[in-house]
UniProtKB/TrEMBL annotation:
SUPFAM superfamilies recorded: DinB/YfiT-like putative metalloenzymes
Protein name: Mini-circle protein
Gene3D superfamilies xref list: dinb family like domain
A Pfam family per the record: MST
InterPro entries (alphabetical): DinB/YfiT-like (IPR034660), MST-like (IPR007061)
Species: Microbispora amethystogenes
Length: 185
């Protein structure tokens, strides 16, 4: 007998999927978005949803569970880290000094403890920081416009955000499987 969780999925149509396509909030019955900006925003939205799906239905203890020693990575840490990252990117494009860190140095992962108040705050922080960065970038629909003191193109900011979420969704896949065995797309 093993201490490893049994692999499982909620999908009934395709056994290798997280959920059936009809139940997947990322599936869109509409046509693919038109244009580069709409496509980039759609990819970002879907990776954000994927991360939330990977965290769905877990207790505070499960969300805070570390992957493998000595790593401090956890699903809760990923939520906190991505809130910090959204805030940091916004600091690159807004005038003035960057905003202070939400959790302090290393606090995004190190402070991800099994406490429901910490979990609730992480979800609220992530939603708030995503909305604020989205709003700041919405003022610049031209993907070639360069922003901030480093003159970063809007396109690069969107692509880097997609890359960050995509990479961490891969981590979330493995973390979730370690927590309860759930696997899928």
């Amino acid at each position: 007998m093993s201490d490893e969780p049994q692999r499982w999925t909620q999908a009934t149509v395709y056994s290798d999927m997280w959920v059936d396509p009809a139940d997947d909030p990322r599936e869109n019955a509409e046509a693919s978005p038109e244009g580069e900006l709409a496509t980039l925003r759609d990819y970002l939205k879907n990776y954000r949803l994927t991360l939330l799906m990977k965290c769905e239905g877990l207790s505070a203890e499960q969300l805070a569970r570390r992957s493998v020693p000595p790593s401090t990575m956890s699903l809760l840490g990923l939520l906190r880290h991505l809130a910090e990252v959204e805030r940091d990117w916004r600091g690159w494009i807004l005038p003035g000094d960057p905003l202070p860190k939400l959790y302090g140095p290393g606090g995004d992962f190190g402070g991800a403890v099994a406490d429901q108040a910490v979990v609730d705050a992480a979800y609220a922080d992530l939603a708030r920081e995503q909305a604020a960065t989205d709003a700041a970038l919405a003022e610049h629909p031209d993907l070639g416009v360069r922003l901030g003191k480093d003159a970063i193109p809007v396109r690069d900011l969107l692509v880097h955000r997609i890359e960050e979420y995509a990479r961490h969704c891969g981590h979330a896949d493995l973390l979730r499987e370690c927590v309860d065995g759930r696997v899928g797309q």
